Amino acid sequence: MSDEKLMRLDMGTLDSSVHSDRPTLCLGIESSCDETSAAVVDSDKNILSHIIYSQIPEHQKYGGVVPELAARAHILAVDNVINQALDKAGKTIDDIDVIAATAGPGLIGGVLVGWMAATGIAQSLKKPLVAVNHLEGHALVPRLCATLADGTNGNVNIEFPYLLMLASGGHCQILLVRGVGKYELIGQTLDDSAGEAFDKVSKMLGLGYPGGPIVDKRAQNGNPRAFAFPRPLCDKPNCDFSFSGIKTAARTFLDRANAPLTDEYIDDFCASFQASVVDCIINRLTNALKDSRVLEASPKTLVVAGGVAKNTAIRSAMEKLAQKNKMIFAAPPLNLCTDNGAMIAWAGLENFLIGNVVREPIAPRPRWPLTEL
Ligand code: KG4
Ligand code: ZN
User: Residue 154: what pLDDT?
Assistant: First the structure.
């Protein structure tokens, strides 16, 4: 086979795959970190199936994700996860109209596994393929399914533009979401992400990985004023974050503590740490709401997404902030906050419907900012 033929992507065309008599069906694949996930989602916002194979137990003993182990685990799981997603949806691969997979950012070994699986399926069956930016998956999933402050849960219509707090293990950004592929960066972390701060504090306390859910739970019984954690950058007029100072403070408090730590100490520590993260998020979002670009766009909805969006205290503080600013508050349901295939399928559909499909070979990207879509 000639090099040229090897390089050509022989994907399906857009029109042949859109059916006017039924919603468009997308298979989404996620493999950028420690979850191998696949889901079948349709353009009427139905999640027909959603399989998540979590590798967390495999990484737990190392206190964090080991990229090489993750890549190998994705290889072993990916076919099975895709087949289960199809079976559970009651569909065959021929029924699927569009294939979508994370093409970055993330741990490149894992991204490659999901991306190559998706490319193989799309190319062999001549189906359209969408290269999904993982962060766009987080950013758009509330349009598939969200919980609102009034308790409404499910398919809600979150209109563009909206102001997004995107907080995950790898990212911490405030974005003005103007549309699919249209993101304006309002603020971001200068060092660690919020998720990383939760994970590191948990590790320092010997509580395990991933730290966010553990710290969240322990914080519920603790005193948020027991330890004076700093609120970095909160005296600055911009919308940026910094969590390294909070981490250093945690280390300093622990160095002064008498081991072994009591349960009460750990609960108070978690509550105080979490309160500082919440205060930083609210302070930075308050500034974002005064940013001239945000004022001019006047978003009606305040959204939180990414793994850290699972956090109870962050959700309720953001809900209050939205109320104060006469905005709607929306967050994905808990199972769609951390990495999952449904958000990739949904972002795939949103892109597919505006014609954003892969037309020539692309290389998955370990770094891929939303502002480069
Ligand atoms: O979005 P995600 O699944 O993966 C990335 O794209 O990075 O986010 C994972 C992060 C981890 O740092 C985890 O500790 C954090 O989300 N997380 C939480 C909670 N649940 C997960 N952080 C705070 N509170 C939680 N309840
Ligand atoms: Zn993620």
Answer: 84
Locate 194 and state its tokens. 């919020």
**For residue 186, what is the enclosing H or E element?**
strand 182-188
Give residue 12's pLDDT: 52
- Sign of the Cα torsion 178, 181, 185, 188 reads positive
Q: Is 253 left (phi over 0), alpha (psi -120 to 50) or beta?
A: alpha
* 298 Cβ neighbours under 8 A, 6+ residues apart: none
Residue 126: CB atoms within 10 Å: 12
How long is the chain?
373
- The pocket around ligand 1, CB under 6 angstroms, is made up of 33, 168-170, 195, 198-199, 210-213, 216, 306-308, 310-311, 338-339
What is the structure's pLDDT at 11? Answer: 55
**What is the mean predicted confidence (pLDDT) over 312-331?**
97
Least distant ligand from the CA of 168? 1
Burial of 69 (0-12, 13-18, 19+ CB in 10 A): middle
Instruction: Read off the pLDDT of residues 143-170 as tens digits, 9 standing for 90 and up.
Output: 999 988 888 888 888 999 999 999 999 9
pLDDT confidence tier of residue 281, bands split at 50, 70 and 90? very high
